[in-house]
Design brief:
By secondary structure, the protein is of the alpha+beta class. The chain contains two helices and six strands; from the N terminus they run βββαβαββ. It is about 20% helix and about 25% strand. About 30% of the residues are buried.
Length: about 130
């Protein structure tokens, strides 16, 4: 059985998908861009601002499901330019105090709406 998780504190889906799905003891988030949920616009033109907003969006989704970053077991980060890896890594790393989750980082040709970074997570439900 699966349950759809949605919050107004993260951007609405830009396609036919859910912000997150709870299933079999895990939470699977959709990839989050650096979109401000209030304005629907990118939080800024640079990868640092977009990464911070993507993480804030993920935090809101995790909280809506009763989770925190401590529950995250796997993430995937998509960037349009691996030259931004150091900046993305610094912002991302600031959200995990200890025992960070497993992670993959992939360079892609493009992201929806012209975003610079997109992050998705899998968390265990407490």
């Amino acid at each position: 059985m699966k349950e759809i998780i949605a919050t107004e504190h993260a951007p609405k889906a830009v396609g036919p998908y859910s912000q997150a799905v709870r299933a079999n003891g895990f939470l699977f988030t959709a990839g989050q861009l650096g979109l401000d949920p209030a304005s629907g616009q990118f939080a800024g033109p640079d990868v640092e601002a977009q990464t911070r907003q993507a993480m804030a969006n993920l935090q809101a989704i995790l909280e809506a499901a009763g989770c925190t970053f401590a529950d995250v077991v796997k993430t995937t980060i998509y960037v349009v330019d691996l030259a931004h890896f150091k900046t993305v890594n610094a912002v991302y790393g600031s959200y995990f105090d200890q025992a960070p989750p497993a992670r993959s980082t992939v360079q892609v040709a493009a992201l929806p709406l012209g975003g610079l970074v997109e992050i998705e997570m899998i968390a265990r439900l407490p």
